[in-house]
Amino acid sequence: MIKAIKGTNDILPEEIVEWNYLINVVQKKMQLFNYKEIRTPIFEHTALFSRGIGESTDIVSKEMYSFTDRSENNVTLKPEMTASVVRAFIEHSLGKQSGLNKLFYISPMFRQERPQAGRLRQFHQFGIEAIGSHNPMLDAEVIQVAFEILRNVGLEDLTVTINSLGIPEERAKFSAALKNFIEDRKSKLSEDSQRRLDTNVLRILDSKDRNDQNLLKEAPSILDFLGNESLEHFENVKALLKSAEIPFTVEPKLVRGLDYYTHTTFEITSTKVGSQSALCGGGRYNLLVEQLEGPSTPAVGFAAGIERILLACKSEQAFTPAKEEIDIYLIRLDNQLEKKTFEMASLFRGNNLKVELDYSTRSVKAQMREANKYNARFVVFIGGEEFGNGQIQIKNMQTGDQTLLSIKDLEKILQIVK
RNA sequence: GUGAGCGUAGCUCAGUUGGUUAGAGCAUCUGGUUGUGGCCCAGAAGGCCGUGGGUUCAAAUCCCAUCGCUCACCCCA
Question: Is residue A211 part of a domain?
Answer without folding.
Answer: no
